[in-house]
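User:
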Amino acid sequence: MSQYSIKEVESLSGVKAHTLRIWEQRYDFLKPDRTDTNIRFYNDDQLKLILNISTLNRSGMRISKIVSLDANTLCKEVEKLAEQQAEPNILLDALIHSMIDFDEDRFEKTLSCAILQHGFAKAFSELVFPLMTRTGVLWSTGVVYPAQEHFISNLVRRKICAAIESQHVVRNQHTKKFALFLPEGETHELVLLFTEYILRQHNHHVAYLGGSLPFDDISFIRKSFKPDYLVTYFCIPPVEMPLQEYINQLSNNFSSEKIIVGGKQIDLQQPTLPVNVTPVRCINSLMKAIS
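Assistant: Predicted structure:
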């Protein structure tokens, strides 16, 4: 069973540490464990309880009423609320809950509700990717197990791939050609797959090259596919050369094409970008870059 510090619970649940301490002092339902030095920590069951309580509290139910509910009634109220309301915070809590329990059915039900209410693109940009960001940060610190991160990632990947398979692209005079790839060593494909979905939704022609593509292999796509745009993301530093050098070489090799880059490393390292390279940080900025 996992152990979470109060700050980690705050990150996962969105409930401030100060509020958690108040709940603990005023009500009897929340009893975190403590170390020998009196530092609070929470287990999986306590985290799930906090997620359920915060979900009902955000919907307008008073804490005094929530704490009077037994565990079974509490869970039923949360499930009913998730079905009735598609607010991002409520659905995000439900997705985190499903990750902790490896509950595929709940994940599918929650995400389907979000897609029905908001559409596929908005559900992913406002719900799924914030979930992956939270999960990734906690996975890197050892709070979330790799198995939990992989469980969620594979479910998300399956959902995006199914959506892409169902698309029907009608090419027209506005259609552009995009080559999508990740640098060698980079395997986090979810954002790249979602980019493919968005581009195909706008009737663009996409060559999806996938993750961990060696730099020397990229030039081949220019001869065979003749793309108008290249799109890549840097979640980790490139393994073949420093980020700045990688971008410079990419820009030189594809001087007549437009290049779109994104990912955490762009924000962290803030490389100097050549004139034909445009950074993107969200779907709206992606669409602005290609318009």
